[in-house]
Amino acid sequence: MNRSSRARAFDSSVISDPASTPQAELTPSSLVDIAGIPVANLSLEEAMAVIEKLVLSGGSHYMTVVNAAKIVTARDNAKLRDVILNADLVTADGMSVVWASRLLGRSLKGRVTGIDMFDKLLERASAMGWSVYLLGASEESLREVAARLTTRYKTLRLAGSHNGYFGASEAGDIADEISAARADLLFVAMGSPSQEYWISENLLRSGVRFAMGVGGAFDHLSGRSRRAPRWMQDAGLEWFYRLMREPRRLWRRYLIGNSIFIWLVLRQLISRGSRPRP
């Protein structure tokens, strides 16, 4: 099915039938509507199983993860909204999305973050013989990531890499390079929504079987930046850790964006005539 023909209209409040979105064609469980975005109710292992089916089924597919900020942005950004709604798989990257699902009475099983999925897919690619292409970050970061990956996964096939510092006019040429490298999996670390846009616009030309945006995963893996301690991740405080490290850049995203997200979820709750779960 052509991707452009699969795009569905986005209700200004909430979607009426999340099961009619593209990812429902491949996801074996129900979808949870979070402020108009259908999120797959899968564990990390279940999401891995879905992705493996996508890779083995042929064609080109992509996944995206959503947090409160991305859902809020998608309300007014039609381009990002269409990219999300046309994804083959959408999972909850932020704990706020999981909390919202509980409030709405349809609890998600948990977070399936981009960086955790990145780690799992590298391990699976190594075992299955899938080749991997890395796009984004700096040349220095890419070299360090490649060195660490080949040390950690002895049988991993790196098809190639390209830094994220290029102009829009070069995007097609880079997609052709990825296609020539015959990569199976593509990981794009250019930040959101740039990585989502690039994947959506160049997926078919790149010829990869599966692609996903991984944000700052390359910098985390190379040791250039640190992820929140595990206890903060488990407590849903990873956003607070990031805010404390980069307050000037992130204060608007988390403080204002999260407030808007809460309002959207409450409005959805009221529109359904539902009561929050205790």
What's the arrangement of strands in the largest beta sheet? 4-3-8-7-5-6
Shape: globular
In whole angstroms, how far apart are the ends?
42 Å
Number of individual domains: 1
Q: Biggest β-sheet, characterized? A: 6 strands, parallel
Helicity level: 40-55%
Tell me what the structure shows.
- The protein is of the alpha/beta class and 278 residues long.
- The protein has one domain (22-222): Rossmann fold (3-Layer(aba) Sandwich).
- The chain contains 13 helices and 8 strands.
- The chain has a 6-stranded parallel β-sheet, sandwiched between helices. Strands 1-2 form a two-stranded antiparallel sheet.
- It is globular, with a radius of gyration of 18 Å.
- The N and C termini lie far apart (42 Å).
List keywords for this structure.
Rossmann fold; two-stranded antiparallel sheet; 278 residues; globular
What's the topology here?
Layout: H1 3-6, E1 31-34, E2 37-40, H2 44-57, E3 61-66, H3 68-76, H4 78-85, E4 89-92, H5 95-103, H6 114-128, E5 131-136, H7 139-152, E6 157-162, H8 171-180, E7 185-189, H9 194-206, E8 210-213, H10 217-222, H11 230-234, H12 238-245, H13 247-271
Helix pairs in contact: 3-4, 3-13, 8-9, 12-13
